[in-house]
Amino acid sequence: MKKIVVMISGSGSNLEAIAKACQTGSIPASIELVISNQPNVKGLERAQKFHLMSKIIQHQDFDSREDFDHALLEQILPIEPDLVVLAGFMRILSSNFTEALNGRLINIHPSLLPDYPGLNTHKQAIENGDLMHGISVHYVSNVLDGGPIISQGALKIDPAQSEAKLINRIHKIEHAIYPKVIADIVKGHIALQGDQVKFEAESHFGPNHMEFFNV
């Protein structure tokens, strides 16, 4: 059985989607550990609901980003995970961390990268009058939200809708795509080779994959 570590900072809705897929066998892997850098978040309750081991490592307890990342690696590396999944983990990771897990570290970002790396993506898309918005799943590199893209999901923006409604629609795309990407990675259908994502024929995805959703 392949092993996964999931890292969160908030509500953990993607964690729940991943845990359900592991439970049903859609993802042939087990979540060995959930790490949160914030205490008392909904994501920790979701971890408990699925009987997942969780650990709180607060970044505020460390003098530097590197010290915090070292503490993370001390928890992660002994597990020897096949994949480390950032699921709403709201910290910039150091190069020491990303290099230690190169090819085994993925993230989901709420924009159609390379548009809007960083925070407040939904607000920026609305204020700029974008017609489309979406999500990107990518391998993590030393560049913020800049690693090789595995897949993207897009929707049409309704200018009459609130930011909260748009966020809700985006979450539906995240929960549809992220578990499928994770499943393909742990099955060996997707891998990172150098700085290129390689797709086997059995994968649900392929180069420049973008799926459009009516949600």
Structure keywords:
32% helix, 215 residues, 6 helices, alpha/beta, Rossmann fold, 2 domains, single chain
Number of domains: 2
The chain-level mean pLDDT equals 97
The assigned structural class equals alpha/beta
Can you name the CATH architecture of the largest domain? 3-Layer(aba) Sandwich
* CATH level 4 superfamily of the largest domain: Formyl transferase, N-terminal domain
Low-confidence stretches: none
Rounded to an integer in angstroms, the radius of gyration calculated over CA atoms is 17 Å
Globular, elongated, flat, extended or rod-shaped: what is the shape? Answer: globular
Side-by-side strand order of the widest sheet = 3-2-1-4-5-6-7-10
Concise synopsis of the structure shown:
By secondary structure, the protein is α/β, with parallel strands linked by helices. The protein contains 6 helices and 10 strands. The strands form 2 sheets. An 8-stranded mixed sheet has the order 3-2-1-4-5-6-7-10, with helices on one face. It has a two-stranded antiparallel sheet with strand order 8-9.
